[in-house]
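Notebook entry, cofactor series.
This is the third protein in the set we're modelling with a bound small molecule. For this one the ligand is zinc ion. I'm keeping the input format identical across the series so the outputs can be compared line by line later. Sequence and SMILES below, as received.
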Amino acid sequence: MIAIRRTPPWPVLTLLAFVLPSAPRAQEPFEIPRELRDNAARLAERALDSGLALEIAASLTTEIGPRLAGSEQEARAREWGVRTLEALGFADPRVQTFEIDYWTRGELDAEITAPFPQDLVATALGGSAASPPEGLEAEIVFFDSYDDLAAAATATATATATTSATATARDGVVAGRIVYVNDRMVRAQTGAGYGPANRKRQRGWIHAERLGAAALVIRSVGTSNDRFAHTGMMSLPAELERPRIAALAVSNPDADQIERMAAAGGAVRMRLRSTAGFRGRRESGNVIAELPGADLAEQIVLIGAHLDSWDQGTGAVDDAAGVAVVTAAAKLIAELPEPPRRTIRIVYFGAEEVGLRGALHYAEANAEDVPRHVIATESDFGAGRVWRFASGVSRDVDAAMDAVARELMAYGVVPGGRDVRSGGPDITPLADAGVPTVRFEQSGEDYFDLHHTPNDTLDKIDPAALAQNVAVWAAGIYLLANLDVEYRFSEAP
Ligand SMILES: [Zn+2]
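Returned structure with ligand:
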């Protein structure tokens, strides 16, 4: 990604001469043994013909449905996971339990009371507090963007607001009012619009509380113009107390209404009532099983997805699709006459949506085994087709990763970068502990139309796209589990 626009002057070249020996060496092309290539192609072919992934996604979303972290349904999903992995013949299906703070959304009503009274379609944000029982009514303070809100809060905190027009305009205005944050999410294949748009959901409450706001309302973090609101977790940094204010997202069309009313210049007033909140400690858990390896069995290739979902839909694309893809891919590999050289471990993480609780617990509880994880990756980006393969493994095996990427091109996947920092949300704690990762990147163009909404249901999974995922995962994971290379970094990345 570095664009060299000019011939470097000589001193730079001299410097490069010292730098180059430690940079990745040009490598001999890596030849994947014929037998492995044939098996990978066979796996992909079978995956494209198999309905197993769709059956798994249908079973989880129908027989369990919504699976909020810490709920009864999530507990039933763990039993479902063990049953399913057992029935498919995987070794030692088991549950690794842990406790979480259990949050539920309760009831919520929100309406505009002035200048043009009307109901709003809204939903509480994960981690938010209840409003006063009778609800609250206040004028909104309209922030065009998260950055404006953050600037106002910072200016107030440091009492040097004089240089910021936004901050001076807001200073002292927010107290007792409802902070409204409007930034829109940009649609993109990579999902790159999510991070920037999501800051208001994650950290908006911190600034709103600092400014003395009565509540936080945000435009949904999502690309749909359908009239439903996108939920999702707020960030709860360990050093801060829990949110004390109600926080909610309104649907994109409702946000447009608020934007038009605010643009007219008069006061916009809102009334809201929410009974959201934490309800004590509850059990969650990860479901784990293996396809044992042959001569390199002590090395683990971890393929994961998350079992919990938000409560509004049935968690089909997020993340029953991921559960289905990794399970079906591993099952196809298990059906080959010879086991893979390395052990393939399936992990259905619990409590992902509420702050990667299962992933953090897994990395902690398995700390001694972390060095045995030689590849880790997760399917958690909907049910769209895989379009790119990228890696974050030792640069000494660049040529081998090129060779894997070449095999995957047959299924519509282009080679991607070498700079993967994590193989998925639940892989982050392992990646932070030095575990190499890969990503089978899915097209996220439409993912955020559904993400965390009541519309995340089974019918949104395209069977052909799901089968393509299984084909790419089965072929890719099979190769990674069998290649004669060392993925681990020689020193910590
Ligand atoms: Zn997810």
